[in-house]
Amino acid sequence: MAVAYERIADELREAIRAGQLQPGDRLLSETKLAEKYRKSVPTIRDALRLLRDEGLVEKQHGRGTFVRRPRTKVSRTNARHQWEKDRVRDPEENRAKTGATEHDTGLTVNDLIFQASYREIEASEEIAKALGVTEGTPLVERTYRTRYAAEDAPFNLVTSYLVREMVAANPDLLDETKEPWPGGTQSQLHTVGIELDRIEEHVTARPPTPEEAEELGLPHGTAVLILRKTSYDTSNRVVEMSDITLPGDRTEMLFTTPLERW
User: Fold this and answer.
1) In a domain, 260, yes or no
2) Residue 155 belongs to what domain range?
C-alpha cells in the first residue's frame, strides 16, 4: 500500500501527464502543498524528491519547483553510419546542410550550437591497445559538444582519437577551427584516402560521474550509456576511435540486423 508521499507524488504525476500542469509551470510552494494535502512539509519534500528523481520536476534555487520541460530525444540507429558514408563524396554544399545530430534528432543546422576542441596527446596503454598502435604514439584528441539552442545541456559527450601520422597529410584535420566539418569524420578521413569498411559499437551502462551528471543535466538516478565506437578501414586497420557518453533519459538506440533468407 502506498505511503502518503507516494500518493501525493501519484496525484502530481497524473496532473503533469494529463497536461493540467504544463512544462515550465511552477508548483505550489512546499508550505501550500502541505496545507492542500494536510500533510507535513517533510512528506511533501519526499513526494517532490520522487518526482525530481523521475525527471518530471526540477527545483530552481530561490524560485521554487517547476514542471521540467521534456528534452529533445535522440534516436541513434546503426543505419546512421551508411547514411554518413553515402554522403562522403557529395559536394560540400550538400554535406553542409545536415549532419549526424540532425539525422538523429530531426533538428536543423540552425537549431544547433556546436563546439569542438583539439589537442595532441600521447596514446595511453588503453587507447594504444584500442587503436592498435604502440603506447606513446602521437594522437589527435578531439572533444565535441552539440546542443539544441533551446536547451542548456549537450546531447552527449564525445571524445574522438585519430593517429596523428595517419591524418597529418591534410593539415585541416589538425585544426579545430575547421569544425564543424561538412560530412563528419568519414568525410574528413576521405580527404587522406581512407575509406571505412565497418564500424563496431560496444555499449555498456553505468551511473554517471558527478561531472557527467552536471554537464548532461541528468535527473538524480539517471544512468548513462557508454558507447565505444571503433572505425576500421578497408585494410582492417583501426583509423578512429570515439568514447561517447549518452544520457539515459533522452537516448534511444535502435539496431536493425538484416538476416539472410533460407
Assistant:
1) no
2) 74-254
What is the per-residue pLDDT across 16-39, written as a single tens digit (0 to 9) for each? 999 999 988 999 999 999 999 999
The pTM (predicted TM-score) of the whole model is 0.85
∠ Cα 128 130 136 (to 5°): 5
Burial 240-254 (b: 16+ CB within 10 A, else e): bbbebbbbbbbbeee
Q: 106 and 151 in one domain?
A: yes
Do 20 and 80 have their domain in common? no
In this structure, the dihedral spanned by the alpha carbons of residues 76, 230, 176 and 119, taken in order and rounded to 10 degrees, is 130
Residue 172, number of CB atoms within 10 A of its CB? 12
Summarize pLDDT for 245-258 with one digit per residue, the tens.
999 999 999 999 88
CA distance 157 to 63: 30
Residue 261 forms part of a structural domain: no
Q: How far apart are CA 157 and CA 114, in angstroms?
A: 12
Confidence of residue 1 (pLDDT cuts 50, 70, 90): low
**242 touches 159 (CB < 8 A):** yes
